[in-house]
Amino acid sequence: MATIQVSRGTRDILPSEVSYWQLIERSAREILDRAGVSEIRTPIFEQTELFARGMGEATDVVSKEMYSFTDRGDRGLTLRPEGTAGVVRSLIENNLMAQGGVQRLWYVGPMFRYERPQAGRQRQFHQLGLEMLGSADPRADVEAIAIATDILKAIGLKDLTFDLNSIGDTTDRAQFREALVAYLTPYKSDLDPDSQDRLTRNPLRILDSKDKNTQKILDSAPSILDHLSDASKARFDRVQQLLADLSIACQVNPRLVRGLDYYSHTVFEIQSADLGAQATVCAGGRYDGLVTELGGPETPAIGWAMGLERLVILLQKLGNDTSVTPVDFYVISKGVVAESQALKLVQQLRQAGFKAELDLSGSAFGKQFKRADRSAAAACLILGDAEAEKGTAQLKWLASGDQSELVQSELASHFEAWRAVLQG
């Protein structure tokens, strides 16, 4: 019978890799907690209409990439392709804005898009995201960006580039869209196929085309920055000044537009050259109209998301040490009574805060000792028939070979001395 393999576009995260994921999540949790950001957990699938309305039916994600299905109740559902729409839906449904002030929320979990699988881009991928809802102040933009950069620094990433742009408000974008379409229309046959399609559906997306010939055509295209209102320009200047005040270096990239319809004003991407074509590790922007679009009250907002797979690839390439703390005690036993006593001892060690592993093989002592050596444990606790009968255990420090006999009932009296030894 043929074995069943993982589905295309998904992958297993094996124990040898999990430490990288835990480092990212642990570092992010600490920084987000210090910033007063609360975790929110939304469903993995939502009504399809949520993403069609929120992200825009003309976007590639909605038109080409979503995993949508009809359930047994004839309801249209979609595995979430991103996290923001679900958070906003929850905000509206649970009336979170009634609490007053700014809602600072974060999430982490799997997302789903039907794309061509490649390094750092799977059909099931994981994002960690921040959403700040309730403030139109440019300081909110900069606070969100500062939290992202703090997380990336905390996990040890360096040599990152930070692209920043403003796509203005609805009026600014409408004027720019008209100018961009007028410029590109004579070149339509020279554009790549995706850009030809986007010229009528979503022309701003042409700006981030990777096609070399399209990029050459865009060299002389109008700039969004020339179509910003005075208020939008002043706002963008304020964002740049506040970033400079925090020593967060950025470069203005007028072609940066982001791929979803709900963005406005500030948009940004943080990239690493070590990732090749899939260089973006964090991206986001302001989406002041999304809450209203989804049926809620007028609520300004800013957010971003990080791709965890890409961060893990970077950590592995950079050789960042995410090694798991080794076992403190490896507990070896042989014999029915000794094995029962060993189970109690290992539980006692764990409850006291030690990292303890119990050998469950029941094999000869020699084989158990070999596994203890491979575990890199600091010490072994050994119980055989003789120890079981006397209520004792043998303690062996593996580095020095020093060995002594302990009374099981007095185990706790040694804990403080052992902690001192283990801390070194």
Textual characterization of the structure:
The protein is an alpha+beta fold. It has 2 domains: 15-169 and 229-318, Bira Bifunctional Protein, Domain 2 (BirA Bifunctional Protein, domain 2), CATH 3.30.930; 329-423, Anticodon-binding domain (Rossmann fold), CATH 3.40.50.800. Helix content is 39%, strand content 21%. It is built from 15 helices and 16 strands. The protein has helices at 15-34, 48-55, 60-65, 84-93, 138-154, 170-184, 193-201, 212-218, 230-245, 290-293, 308-318, 336-351, 365-374, 385-390, 415-423, and strands at residues 38-39, 45-47, 67-70, 76-79, 103-112, 124-133, 160-166, 251-252, 264-272, 280-286, 301-307, 329-333, 356-358, 379-383, 392-397, 403-407. Strands 1-5-6-11-10-9-7-8 form an 8-stranded mixed beta sheet. Strands 13-12-14-15-16 form a 5-stranded mixed beta sheet, sandwiched between helices. The chain has a 3-stranded antiparallel beta sheet with strand order 2-4-3. A hairpin with a 5-residue loop joins strand 3 and strand 4. Helix 1 packs antiparallel against helix 5 (138-154) and helix 1 (15-34) crosses helix 11. The longest helix has 20 residues, at 15-34. It starts with 14 loop residues before the first helix and ends with a helix.
| Radius of gyration (Å) | 28 Å
The share of residues in helices is 25-40%
CATH superfamily of the largest domain: Bira Bifunctional Protein, Domain 2
CATH secondary-structure class of the largest domain: Alpha Beta
Major sheet: 8 strands, mixed
The CATH topology annotation of the largest domain reads as BirA Bifunctional Protein, domain 2
Task: Give unreliable regions as ranges.
Answer: none
How many runs of DSSP E, i.e. beta strands? 16
List the quaternary state of the chains: single chain
Number of domains: 2
Query: What would the principal axes of the Cα set say about the shape?
Result: elongated
Question: Helix segment count?
Answer: 15
CATH architecture annotation of the largest domain: 2-Layer Sandwich
Structural class: alpha+beta
